[in-house]
Amino acid sequence: MSLVAACCNTPAVENAHWHNKGDFVELSTEIAGQKRKTYVTGPKDSKRGIVAIYDIFAYHPTTHQFYDRIALSHGGFQLSAPDYFPEGGIPPEYMGDSAKLMGWIGQHGDYHKNHILEVTLAAVEDLRKAGCTSFSLIGQCWGVLMAAKVVSEEGTPFLSAGGPHPSFISLETTNDVKTPLILLPSQNEADLVPVIQRNNTRGFAVESEHHRFDNMHHGWTGGRGDWTVPEQFKAALEAIELFGAFYAKVAAANDSKL
């Protein structure tokens, strides 16, 4: 798997500000004997759930704004963004050193060793207790790979997955995906159309989608996003609209089967 070069050398935006609309709560299920928090946002009467996997900077004002706005789009979703990095996101001094960055991801963001699936399923169970009957998964950067791994599991509870500016996504890493995908690469990512084309041969009720943002840099919806820049904010709103529409469509397709 290859890391997007921009992921190594683009730091988080330090001047970002956002007043969170949601709250931090504890997940009901302990993970490896440890309590984990999650950020929950969106209308509490929605039956549509989204679990979100942040980028390597963990919680960030721009990331929170992204979640809050998605949760209010297309009739609303209950969104839960668990804390996958309880010790904090990537140290800023690692930016520009791909070896240190990959080492950190291997230590803190390994799918099996760091219990990514268990944390994600714990968030699903809490959303289910809150009344949700359908679930989609969204990741950012590294989080898109984690989302792809989760929906490659047999019996996954998720109806769809995807995310913006994905790292490590390829035909190989999406070989066993069992849901439709929505991918929004930036100018820094490789051509992901073949991934979507293959996924659309698998007979899902909703077709996978691909929307390329060639005017945006890697990370513009998360820690590397500066939404005081009009172009970035406009592109972010477009991305939010696309994700909200896709996840609403997937949930509606599921409801029609019930």
From TrEMBL:
Location of the Dienelactone hydrolase domain: 38-221
Record-level Gene Ontology MF annotations: hydrolase activity
Residues in coiled coil: none
Gene3D superfamilies referenced in this protein's UniProt entry, alphabetically: alpha/beta hydrolase
Database matches in PANTHER family: DIENELACTONE HYDROLASE DOMAIN-CONTAINING PROTEIN-RELATED, DIENELACTONE HYDROLASE FAMILY PROTEIN (AFU_ORTHOLOGUE AFUA_6G01940)
Protein name (database record): Dienelactone hydrolase domain-containing protein
